[in-house]
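call fold(seq) -> tokens
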Amino acid sequence: MSSPRTKSLYNDVIMDHIRNARNFREIENASRKAQGVNPLCGDSFTVYLRTESDRITEASFQCECCGISMASASIMTEAVKGM
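ret:
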């Protein structure tokens, strides 16, 4: 079971990514682009990647989605850089 502080930290991180989504934009001349729609809720996403030598140098997204999905995409674009 998580502590109240852990829950607060989790909520703070999620809310920060909702209010200040990182990489919420289109990458011009992206190396890769993927689009998807969640048929259960209607969220739609486009994810953009720029790669060099099989490494992700830049990642971004655009969406019409709820806050939790936006936070997830924002966190993902930060996490995949350099992979």
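DSSP finds two helices and three strands in the chain.
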